[in-house]
Task: inverse folding
């Protein structure tokens, strides 16, 4: 046919055009990755310099000599920006908040979701709405009254006051409800015929079945708890309850001081505050992504 | 082993939907009964009421002479096989099969022995330590069977257990389930929408439509003597031909033709005439003209699709028959003619 | 609810009790209290309060500073939502397309999700530092005397950039998973029907992503309104002064720094109403979403 001669150059051109397009894609992705990577990376390299250099020259691209020193000071020296706590204690508090929040939230919301989904309750719909209304109002909106409530209960500067009010939102219950709804009905029916009561079904079947979901929600909640800022800022005035993220405020304030502050140390602490949630998200990203995208649907 | 009695069973859902109208039937000890009907006919609801997964609105349900209306599913001495198998995905085959026994507090050694027996019976022995996700569809189906068999129940309940399998496996499992039930002699209630399954497996078939029983009978009775137009068109593939006709005292005339045929009953007025495709002969001297539009080759026989008096009509002929597309004539076997009331759809 | 639920009564009540108690104490009680105190004028020393009716609300709506903050909040939310969605969509489309290194790119582009907003704000301080910040120098090269914390627009720009940067990963994750859930057969059908890749994107891919985008729109507005608190607080270095701020920051400022309990409560209530409107809007979208998928 007449067309064949015309088509030939198109065929030879084809792979080349695709390759250029692919290179373009990679360029965009590399630029994007750099955009996301650079700020924390620069923070890391800068943290390896002494305070005077940082103060005078700002961010540093190259690695300096003081990385170990700055991290050591940030983690173990009392003083620096606060006089009574060191980084290790803040790190511990961050873990208590992150893990305590995640575990508490998972247990409480799993139980509630189980009750809502699997029981014939007359007030199930009511309970559902009572719980899910909380999705509407994030803690930030009702921060002042929540603080007043904690104060009246005498829970300021306690781990309970730090953790429990954060649990008072239905996100976890909502996640688990969605997941339980997607579990085939027949499983519960088969279990009933197999003689498993509601508690046995929960422990023997539903909880093991939810393992991936639990892991995913744990990661999301741990990061959420670890990264809390406003609430810990209000609830903990006693420095021995400070978390790393809460401590950032102190770091920031140190920056406004007129004399040369311990920049390297501050940066080291900020990096320590990033590491645990970043490590968890990177290493368990499949679970994390699955939990995030599936449960929100 | 047990017989099952349903007396005046009614199911009305809280939203007012009546899924099952007053239903009575008895299932004999060791009998294999199939509930068949299109989706939404109430067959699954009936089965789930027998299982105890659904409350009974009204009526009495007896399993083995014991009224079980308010008995928990676990205490009804039943086992159920689900459409999607409902295997516990995190448990091995061994644990899946043994879970019901464990919940009954049976000693571990005894459970193990019983699980082994069931596995052997179903050719699952080498898969006992696998999880359901590592099994093929047919193997999962067997595990679901094993879970039922191991309990040695009085009654097996099957809820469309084969509909997730491909055609070949379905034919094979059909035979296996039937053989197993024969061997164990356990009463079985089997729900399906597939009339082939119903025909091949059942001792007795119960045809349901819109929450009502249309007919109860052996496969042969259901096939040859359908009680209604619904049964006639639902059971059998290809279904029974149903065309409009006029009956007049022992004779019947297909609309548009003068030829009279002897009618099985003395009825007068318009009727629906039913006849199975295999009860018709191509006959150039036949009384009814038939136009063949499409010829369907099925190997063992051929189907001729066309029209009689403008109404769709199918004839089955043997594989050696030299049928051709075009006009021909047919003869209907008189004793295979069935007449149905045009209004009620019931057989006359 | 499942069709064959358990009939037990006390077990579900026991299971629900912890959640309901926490919600009652830390949600309903505070919310009711906020509503109530928004109608009172609190004595600055905490000795009592007087009922003032809707005064807190009227003074709020007549307050020019509050109007200015509300306006900034709107502009801020729109900019943050638009840029973080647009950049994330571009990156997700590319990450979905490449074969080599797809997983590495995904990791590199999403890990910032784990960084706390105030830490992001702190990084912002370094980049926008008045004398040494690289971003400051960048803007100065255009002749803009960029001074973080001094110049209103400079601070606002820094806040938007930091907030966008922090939000890109979430949007990226959702867009990528949305793209990956588009059936292969649909893409192949589109390849046969349309030879232009751009045309395919806007006519086939983007409409299929619309449900994800709608959902993300709400998520991003919520983020811009509430979760940016840490970024804003860090970038103004604890000195509100003349700096731009969002409505949530103002609630915090009046309630905790200014001790204006009634005014802060009234602001909380206004925010609650705002969120409720957003949620109703979201539910309507979700309803429509069901028809899409």
Result:
């Amino acid at each position: 046919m007449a067309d064949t001669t015309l088509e030939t150059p198109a065929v030879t051109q084809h792979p080349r055009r695709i390759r250029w397009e692919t290179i373009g894609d990679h360029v965009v992705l590399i630029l994007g990755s750099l955009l996301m990577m650079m700020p924390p990376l620069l923070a890391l390299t800068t943290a390896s310099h002494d305070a005077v250099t940082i103060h005078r020259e700002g961010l540093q691209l190259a690695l300096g000599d003081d990385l170990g020193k700055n991290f050591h000071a940030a983690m173990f020296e009392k003083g620096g920006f606060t006089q009574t706590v060191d980084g290790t204690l803040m790190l511990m508090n961050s873990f208590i908040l992150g893990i305590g929040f995640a575990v508490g939230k998972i247990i409480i919301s799993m139980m509630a979701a189980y009750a809502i989904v699997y029981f014939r309750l007359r007030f199930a719909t009511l309970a559902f709405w009572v719980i899910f209304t909380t999705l509407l109002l994030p803690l930030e909106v009702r921060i002042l009254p929540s603080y007043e409530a904690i104060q009246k209960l005498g829970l300021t500067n306690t781990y309970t006051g730090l953790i429990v009010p954060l649990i008072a939102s239905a996100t976890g219950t909502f996640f688990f409800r969605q997941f339980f709804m997607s579990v085939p009905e027949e499983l519960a029916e088969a279990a009933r015929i197999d003689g498993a009561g509601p508690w046995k079904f929960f422990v023997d079947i539903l909880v093991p079945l939810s393992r991936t979901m639990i892991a995913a929600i744990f990661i999301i909640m741990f990061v959420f708890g670890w990264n809390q800022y406003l609430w810990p800022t209000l609830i903990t005035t006693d420095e021995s309850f400070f978390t790393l993220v809460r401590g950032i405020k102190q770091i920031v304030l140190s920056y406004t001081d007129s004399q040369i502050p311990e920049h390297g140390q501050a940066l080291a602490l900020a990096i320590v505050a990033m590491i645990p949630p970043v490590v968890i998200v990177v290493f368990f990203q499949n679970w994390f992504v699955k939990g995030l995208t599936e449960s929100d649907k | 082993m047990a017989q099952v009695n349903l007396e005046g069973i009614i199911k009305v859902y809280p939203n007012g939907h009546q899924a099952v109208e007053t239903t009575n039937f008895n299932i004999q000890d060791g009998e294999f009964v199939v509930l068949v009907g299109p989706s939404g006919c109430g067959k699954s609801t009936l089965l789930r009421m027998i299982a105890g997964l659904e409350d009974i609105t009204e009526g009495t349900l007896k399993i083995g002479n014991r009224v079980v209306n308010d008995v928990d599913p676990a205490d009804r001495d039943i086992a159920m096989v689900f459409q999607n198998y409902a295997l516990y995905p995190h448990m091995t085959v061994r644990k899946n099969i043994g879970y019901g026994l464990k919940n009954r507090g049976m000693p571990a050694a005894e459970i193990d022995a019983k699980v082994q027996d069931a596995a052997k019976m179903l050719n699952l022995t080498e898969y006992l330590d696998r999880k359901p996700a590592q099994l093929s569809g047919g193997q999962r189906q067997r595990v679901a069977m094993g879970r039922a068999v191991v309990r040695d129940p009085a009654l097996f309940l099957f809820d469309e257990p084969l509909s997730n399998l491909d055609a070949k496996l379905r034919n094979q499992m059909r035979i296996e389930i039937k053989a197993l039930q024969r061997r164990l002699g356990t009463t079985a209630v089997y729900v399906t929408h597939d009339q082939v399954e119903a025909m091949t497996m059942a001792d007795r078939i119960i045809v349901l439509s819109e929450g009502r029983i249309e007919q109860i009978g052996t496969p042969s009775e259901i096939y040859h003597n359908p009680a209604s137009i619904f049964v006639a068109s639902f059971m059998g593939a290809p279904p029974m031909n149903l065309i409009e006709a006029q009956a007049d005292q022992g004779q019947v005339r297909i609309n548009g033709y003068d030829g009279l045929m002897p009618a099985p009953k003395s009825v007068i007025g318009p009727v629906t005439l039913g006849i199975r495709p295999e009860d018709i002969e191509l006959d150039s001297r036949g009384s009814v003209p038939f136009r063949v539009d499409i010829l369907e080759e099925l190997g063992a026989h051929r189907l001729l699709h066309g029209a009689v008096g403008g109404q769709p009509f199918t004839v089955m002929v043997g594989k050696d028959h030299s049928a051709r597309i075009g006009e021909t004539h047919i003869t209907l076997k008189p004793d295979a003619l069935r007449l149905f009331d045009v209004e009620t759809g019931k057989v006359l | 609810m499942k069709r064959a639920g358990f009939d037990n009564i006390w077990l579900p009540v026991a299971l629900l009790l912890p959640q309901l108690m926490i919600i009652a104490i830390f949600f309903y009680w505070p919310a009711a209290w906020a509503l109530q105190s928004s109608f009172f004028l609190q004595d600055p020393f905490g000795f009592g309060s007087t009922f003032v009716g809707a005064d807190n609300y009227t003074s709020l709506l007549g307050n020019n500073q509050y109007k200015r903050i509300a306006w900034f909040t709107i502009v801020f939310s729109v900019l943050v939502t638009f840029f973080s969605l647009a950049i994330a969509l571009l990156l997700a489309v590319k990450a979905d397309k490449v074969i080599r290194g797809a997983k590495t790119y995904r990791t590199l582009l999403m890990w910032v999700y784990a960084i706390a907003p105030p830490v992001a704000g702190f990084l912002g301080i370094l980049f926008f530092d008045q004398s040494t910040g690289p971003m400051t120098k960048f803007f100065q090269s255009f002749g803009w005397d960029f001074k973080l914390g001094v110049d209103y627009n400079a601070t606002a720009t820094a806040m938007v950039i930091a907030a966008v940067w922090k939000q890109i990963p979430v949007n990226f994750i959702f867009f990528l998973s949305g793209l990956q859930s588009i059936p292969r057969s649909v893409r192949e059908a589109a390849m046969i029907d349309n030879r232009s890749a751009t045309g395919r994107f806007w006519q086939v891919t983007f409409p299929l992503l619309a449900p994800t985008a709608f959902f993300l729109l709400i998520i991003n507005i919520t983020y811009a309104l509430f979760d940016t608190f840490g970024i804003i607080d860090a970038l103004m270095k604890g000195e509100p002064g003349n700096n731009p701020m969002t409505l949530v920051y103002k609630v915090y400022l009046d309630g905790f720094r200014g001790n204006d309990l009634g005014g802060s409560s009234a602001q909380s209530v206004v925010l609650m109403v705002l969120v409720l409107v957003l949620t109703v809007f979201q539910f309507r979208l979700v309803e429509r979403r069901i028809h899409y998928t």
Summary: The radius of gyration of chain B is 24 Å. The mean pLDDT of chain B is 90. The longest strand of chain B covers residues 18-27.
